[in-house]
Write a structure and sequence with these properties.
about 240 residues; alpha/beta; 6-stranded mixed beta sheet
Length: about 240
């Protein structure tokens, strides 16, 4: 299940998550936290979902479906973070949770209210099986009380180095950097792919390795052709496999 905002352009958010779930061989469900008006050039408007409705969406899914893994994307407000935490904390058996800490859109638009940051770190992160910040997000979040996959896509050099940190253990996933403007939805795609592998019962280091390889293939494919006039969607060439 993805708990995320809607991207009407289909390149990120819950639309991207559901596409990834399908191609990774798992059944996807979604809880809508926000509706955004956006395209490849940027975010034009955001409407947050009523926290009570977020809570009811979550309860509706958990009351009727076996949920094998959960990921969060855009949460938007402290009240929505609290609603998500209230439901997750109430579960007798909690599925693995992957947090993609969506703080900013590709164009720099804020996607998490300032007051929500504390709630995210204080309540949600301790529930996580994995947090997947990029380098700018990691600089804001600081030290986290959960396993972290530090994404190296914002770095420089010929190689991208993603590092999994679990306690005192680190695992590096290294792949060649590809120059491409078509990177919209990269973070959503990686966290969704890892979530799908965890839902299958794959161990965290192997799930991360599979997710990194999956996104690396998509980045190479997305460098050929594009959609839109801005940051094109990573998933424009996605095929079920």
């Amino acid at each position: 299940m993805t708990i995320a905002g809607s991207d009407c352009g289909g390149g990120a958010g819950l639309q991207a998550d559901l596409k990834v779930f399908l191609t990774r061989g798992v059944y996807g469900m979604s809880v809508v936290t926000a509706v955004t008006a956006q395209n490849t050039r940027g975010v034009r408007a955001i409407g947050l979902t009523d926290p009570a409705l977020v809570r009811e969406q979550l309860r509706a899914v958990f009351d009727d479906f076996p949920v094998d893994a959960v990921k969060t994307g855009m949460l938007g407000s402290a009240a929505i973070v609290d609603a998500v935490c209230d439901v997750l904390e109430s579960l007798a058996v909690r599925p693995p949770l992957v947090i993609d800490p969506v703080l900013l859109a590709k164009d720099g638009s804020p996607l998490l209210e300032a007051r929500a940051f504390d709630a995210l770190c204080r309540r949600l992160v301790p529930l996580a099986a994995l947090v997947t910040p990029n380098l700018p997000e990691a600089g804001v979040l600081g030290r986290l009380a959960a396993p972290v996959l530090l994404k190296g896509g914002h770095g420089t050099g010929a190689w991208v180095e993603d590092v999994l940190l679990v306690g005192d253990t680190s695992t590096m996933y290294r792949h060649r950097r590809v120059s491409s403007q078509n990177t919209h939805g990269t973070g959503c795609t990686l966290s969704a792919a890892i979530t799908a592998e965890l839902a299958k019962g794959v161990a965290l280091p192997d799930a991360c390795a599979t997710g990194v390889r999956y996104v690396s293939r998509l980045v190479r494919g997305a460098s050929r052709g594009s959609l839109g006039g801005g940051f094109g969607p990573l998933l424009h060439g996605l095929r079920a496999r």
